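Q: Here's a chain of 250 amino acids. Please give me its 3D structure as tokens.
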Amino acid sequence: MQIGAVLPAAEVSGPGSTPGWLSVRSFAAAAEDRGLDSVWMFDHFFCQTSSGRREGMHEAWTTVSAVAAVTSRIQVGTLVLCSPFRNPGLVAKMAATAEDISAGRLVLGLGAGWHDPELAAFGFAADHLVDRFAEALPIIVGLLQGDTVTVDGRYHDLRATALVPPPARRVPILVAAEGPRMLRLTARHADAWNTAWYGAPDDHLRSQLSAMRQALDTERRDPATLTRTVGIHVYHPDSGVPADPDDEAV
């Protein structure tokens, strides 16, 4: 088993404000020094609470690239990139560059997106999110494995696109998925799967693990070839961050 941590780059991570780069860098260095296997960066521009308040966050790719440059051993990943935010060809190009910066430590986490307030605020499409992701995912996979990609799709249009220079290795792709179609896309294309967020293991987690096994069977894929990752909330009473009464953290 490997253990990673999400970088503290959101307002909810700090004492009433969004932690700056020095705090993020310090956290990443401490995670590496203490033997953690990975650090992860979420992909949101802000989080809008139920009251309508917008909580600040830093941008994912900038943070991931900076962390990759100041660490040397620990894996660095996105958990996960929101598909509507970036053209899939651009995602692949950015991943190839971040992979070079990290010297082979990048995990490219991808998802369909879900937070409508930020999609609307920044002018990104919020319709047919799974359809858009289903078209984008094989484009990214193909480019990162060295293919020249031409697509005349409903949402994306690429003409003889290739990564120059290509990444030195095939960047592993993780997909965050819950519903049946997203699980099958994961089983078909990804190297790893993420399901989140949980406290102690419960029936919902067991149900999701079972659903992924079914998706793998449907796609005729060996379950041993897919890495499974689980996002868990951990509450520390000395953290200075108040516990969420609705969060069943461990």
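Q: Can you summarize the key feature?
A: The mean pLDDT is 94.
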